[in-house]
């Protein structure tokens, strides 16, 4: 049997620790938010991405990419949040082939109500345990993994969403 290099063992350990830490944080914050607001953490995250987008809307493909989930999973999440009145599906005004998720007034209200608790949970379970330099390193590492998210150069029309599909 081939021997495992110690660097490989260290690398595998690092990946496992990172994965465990990400799941632990999501679980801790998610449980508290769910218990206090009735909102799932992933719904909060989706509403937050929409709130930051121009006109409170994003194409489903782009939103799924931002969240790091499949478009089919996102579609299910959109349907669940529609049941609460937080999000609606609307056709793209430029290309009817593209569906946008749009944050509703009720969604903004729900997000606004949950935001202080979410921030307090993230601070206590995460940010307060890291130095500002570590937080910056984490952002850089995360962007190296999933790519940067530019909040200012975000179109909602066919140009941005269709370009993603064609690429």
Automatic annotation (TrEMBL):
Domain HTH marR-type, residue spans: 11-147
InterPro entries tied to this protein: HTH_MarR-typ, MarR/SlyA-like, WH-like_DNA-bd_sf, WH_DNA-bd_sf
Source superkingdom: Bacteria
Pfam family, one: MarR_2
Protein name in the entry: MarR family transcriptional regulator
